Structures are given as C-alpha cells and as structure tokens.
Amino acid sequence: MELIKSSLSFFTTIPIQGDIEKLRRNLWIFPYAGIFVGSVIAGVLYLLTILNLKFLGILAYLLVEGINHIDGLADFGDAFFAPRDKKVQALKDTRIGAGGVVFVVIYIAIIYQALLTADFLKVVVAQSLAKFGMLIAMVTSKPSWSGMASYMMEFARKRDLVIGFIALIPFLILSPIRTLKLLIASIILVFVLKFYSESRFGGISGDILGVLNCSVFALCLIS
C-alpha cells in the first residue's frame, strides 16, 4: 500500500504523502501507476462525455497529472532550439523561452484534440506506456548530472523492466494488435529521445523523463 501511495504522490496531484525512497527502489511500479492515472483521467472523461462537456478533457488531464512533466517539455523545447554548446544551459534554465512555449502549445493542442475522440482503454494504455517509456529510459541510460533523475535511477535494474512489462499483458490480451503497435511505436520514440539526450546532454535528466512521458502519451493517443 505504501508503494502505491508513493507512486500516486509522485505522478499525480492527489494530496497524499508517499515515500520517495521506497519508490526509487521499486521502479517497476511505474506502468502500474500509469494504469491508475489513466483510469482516473478516462473516468473523468466518461463523465464529461455524459454531460456533453468532453471539451474540458484537457483540464481533467492537467488536474490529475499536474504540470511537472509539461514543465520538463518546456525546458526541453528551449534546449532543442538552442545552439549545441548552450543546450545543457538551456535545459537547466528554469525560465521558459520561445522554444518552450512552442513545444507546450503544440502538446496541449494535440492532447486537447486527441482526448475528444479517445476511448477509455486507449487513455489507460497511453498512460501505462508513457510510464513504461520512462522506465525504459531509466534502466537503459545514465543520468546526465546529479539531480532528481540520478537519485531515482540509482537502483534501476533490468528486472524492473520485466516486472513492469507484466502490467501491459492485460492490454495485449484485450486489444493485441492495437496495443502491440502502440508498444512498438513507444519503444522507438523512447530510444530516439534517449539517444538524442545522451548525445546532447550526456544522459537522462528529470526534464527528459518528463518529455518522454508527454511524448509517448501524445503518440499513443493520436496513433
């Protein structure tokens, strides 16, 4: 129960206290937390659909998951457009520039449109794969510098991927073709972003993990 509380405290705006130490020693919980987060978002979307207010789905998403990951996307946007010798500085800069604004606006527009037509299962799968994508990067890469990512990645093990993958099996049974396509596309995107981050920033940071969460979630919703 403590591990579940810790993961929900980390991934949502739900006001509960969690143990970050326990979470970082059990990273396999990431995709399982994604199932819960996705279910909450999808449940709210269902209620909004009944009320003919599904256009408010983007607000439901932001209220449930918060903006921590989107903040990482904004920092990445600034770094993406920065000169190569200033990319690390731009990623670390807490101020948001034009590049970050562009990335966030595009992301919000994509999610807004995608949630208008997304079904319950797709939202849940998308969130689970988003968290699984973060897990892949944490297990297969290295931290770019000392920070939240390095702290979380200290105990990352390959077994976390194996246990985490089990969370996806029910979706592969319920909707095998769609889930398999989304899984493959997500893994490709994760490794593209991983290699880019390693070549430009020397590894994975907390901001990059946020980018992975946002990009995989968006990809799965629009695929």
State the gist of this model.
By secondary structure, the protein is mostly helical. Helix content is 76%, strand content 0%. It has helices spanning 2-11, 20-24, 30-50, 57-65, 68-81, 87-92, 98-117, 120-140, 148-153, 158-165, 169-174, 176-201, 206-222.
Q: Can you tell me about this structure?
A:
- The structure is a single chain.
- This protein has 223 residues and is mainly alpha-helical.
- The chain has one domain.
- It contains 13 helices and no strands.
- The chain has helices at residues 2-11, 20-24, 30-50, 57-65, 68-81, 87-92, 98-117, 120-140, 148-153, 158-165, 169-174, 176-201, 206-222.
- Helix 8 (120-140) runs antiparallel to helix 10 (158-165), helix 8 (120-140) packs parallel to helix 12 (176-201) and helix 12 (176-201) runs antiparallel to helix 13.
- It is globular, with a radius of gyration of 17 Å.
Task: Based on the model shown, name its key terms.
mainly alpha; 76% helix; 0% strand; globular
List the helices and strands and how they pair.
Blueprint: H1 2-11, H2 20-24, H3 30-50, H4 57-65, H5 68-81, H6 87-92, H7 98-117, H8 120-140, H9 148-153, H10 158-165, H11 169-174, H12 176-201, H13 206-222
